[in-house]
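Q: I'm a student working through a structural biology exercise. My instructor gave each of us a protein and asked us to get a predicted structure, then write a short paragraph describing it. Mine is Glyoxylase-like metal-dependent hydrolase (Beta-lactamase superfamily II). I'm not confident about reading structure output yet, so if you can add a plain explanation after the tokens, that would really help. Here is the sequence I was given:
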Amino acid sequence: METVKLGAATEYIPGRVNVGLYLADEGVWLVDSGLDDEAGRKIARLLEERNIPLRRIVTTHSNADHCGGNAFLRKRTGCSVAATELESVVMENPFLEPLLLWSAFPFAELGNKFLQAKPSEVDMVIGNRGIFDESGLEAVPLPGHFLDMIGLRTPDDVLFVADSVFSAELIEKYAVMFVLDVGAALETIDRLTGTEAAWFVPSHAPATENILPLAEANRKGLLRVSEAVLDCCGEPASREEILKCLADRFSLSMSVSEYVLNSAAVGAHLSWLRKRGEVAPVVEKGVLLWRKTP
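A: Happy to help. First, here is the predicted structure for Glyoxylase-like metal-dependent hydrolase (Beta-lactamase superfamily II). I'll explain a few features afterward.
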């Protein structure tokens, strides 16, 4: 496992989920931990080879691919785990993520490591803004993607921006990117375009010195899906029918897990369109339908 050095004390491990490292005199602070025990095991091996003690994992948000290595690393090293209050509730009770997506206790196919990490005890609840411990790491609010997601700015000016933006390749491949609050996600992207940092590190794209092209690709991607959802409401349609419409339009094939993620994202787009007065809900013959407003 190799790292990419971005600052005097900041590195990251490239992967399906980028993991950040900030090295201080007392040891290393991680930004997220990857998907599962195997990710945690690889990180532990790297730190042991370099003889660097792990002090704390700062989790940007509670999606399983960001905190899945926490339990292994905490057990192996005794490290601290920090997260915002809402995200910590899901991390300590990970069945809540598939429950949130399905709106009920999850059925068997949703009990997988991609949607439900191992429970991760959080011993330090932090706010979503400002410096929170002796490392000098600064929490930066990044609302929209999940409940109370944060980014982390290091003292050497590397900004980890979590899932506020995705790579252009992922947007092209999947089209419907997971989001809970479209309006907040767009505002976060707007704020990023006015933010300065030596480096920006998204969780699902390579580090970049210029966030503007990535921010614009994500803004266009969100708006493209919202426009498609609106088009799918030309005739009154249920959420399931709207998702089928999007699948046809963007040539999507989905697993069960991807279906519930995309269904939640469709709900987020519908809520945003409703707030803008562009669609309205109606119940007909026991089915909740969405239609364009005149």
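A: Here are two points you could use in your paragraph. The longest strand covers residues 158-166. The first helix runs from residue 37 to 49. It's a good idea to check both against the output above yourself.
Q: Great, thank you!
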